[in-house]
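Ticket #4471: complex job returned nothing on first submit. Input attached below:
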Amino acid sequence: MHSDEQPGHLQIVTTADGSNTIYNAHVGENYHSRNGALQESRHVFIEQGLQYFLDNTADIAPSVSILEVGFGTGLNFLLSADFCTRQQLQLYYIGVEAYPLTAEIIGKTGYDKYISTSIWTSFLDSYRQSLVSPVKLNTYCQLQIAARKLVDFRSDHQFDVIYFDAFASAHQPEMWDEAAITHTLKFLKPGGVFVTYAITGNLKRTIKALGLKVQKAPGAPGKREMLRAINVL
Ligand SMILES: C[S@@+](CC[C@H](N)C(=O)[O-])C[C@H]1O[C@@H](n2cnc3c(N)ncnc32)[C@H](O)[C@@H]1O
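Support reply: We reran it on our side without changes. The output follows.
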């Protein structure tokens, strides 16, 4: 594994598919799977989340709204923005992030290799502003980062898709408890899709008790299964 020292507790590390992630020494956890950051993001969030919503649940709509819990490096956003721009689909994206990274460290992730140059450039140029107010990256994509804890996040909007990408429950159990999941799912539209990389009995029970339909999907490399839930109409 190649590693590149960054100031403080954050270190860029390379994962099994050659893509980078960040290791946070305060939490003792990586921002993505060590089995492949890019593969995980593409599989869990783009294919099983966004693409699934468009194929199965969406009316033929020219727009999609996404809420992400745990914005981090922005990899899930960047892949979503690239996808939506290629599909000429309007994207409204809010990422909730309690501890925003600097643009400098995000600039060192190498994620420019996986998306168009224009999206990468406009993302880095507008990253600081997106922490304050919504920004348009191009004709199709609008980004806002809500720089606060999930528990403090409020919105009048409900979203088509929720990407739940918190640190694992072994490291941050409070992100996965009933209160946190119930709060998050208030922001899911009827017919909307919630996805996360993990699946546990507690999570399934909590989500079922809220009236959503829980599905198991094949997991990203290194995980047998992941969870998808549909807010049945
Ligand atoms: C697994 S990482 C997210 C990875 C990210 N989606 C990416 O692609 O880089 C979890 C993220 O949740 C953030 N976080 C931790 N506690 C939080 C909280 N209470 N509310 C919102 N975000 C939180 C962390 O700072 C971290 O960026």
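The first strand starts at residue 3 and ends at 5. Closing as resolved unless it happens again.
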